[in-house]
Write a structure and sequence with these properties.
With about 90 residues, this protein is α+β, with helices and mostly antiparallel strands. The protein contains two helices and five strands. It has a five-stranded antiparallel beta sheet with strand order 3-2-1-4-5. The longest helix has 14 residues.
Length: about 90
């Protein structure tokens, strides 16, 4: 099962190609932010298959991660996030 998982933008690594580095539970990956307008370092986004799909507030991001942990889904999604090719 694939879920959108919240991550925090920690760096815009390539503005021209809309690539940002996000942190998800301590794992940092590059994702495409080109589908979103007006995102910046410090913003939280929902990530699915390497793309930031929507912007969310910090409280919503933390609540989503908590729910995923409680459901037992978070660890598998995080593992997939860690092992996908950058």
């Amino acid at each position: 099962m694939c879920l959108a998982i919240p991550g925090k933008i920690v760096e815009v690594v390539d503005r021209e190609n809309s690539i940002a580095k996000v942190d998800v539970g301590g794992v940092r990956r590059n994702v495409n932010i080109g589908m979103l307008d007006d995102v910046a370092v410090g913003d939280y986004v929902l990530i699915h298959v390497g793309f930031a799909m929507s912007k969310v507030d910090e409280k919503e991001a933390e609540e989503t991660l908590r729910l995923l942990r409680d459901l037992g889904s978070y660890e598998e999604e995080l593992k997939q996030f860690e092992t996908t090719v950058q």
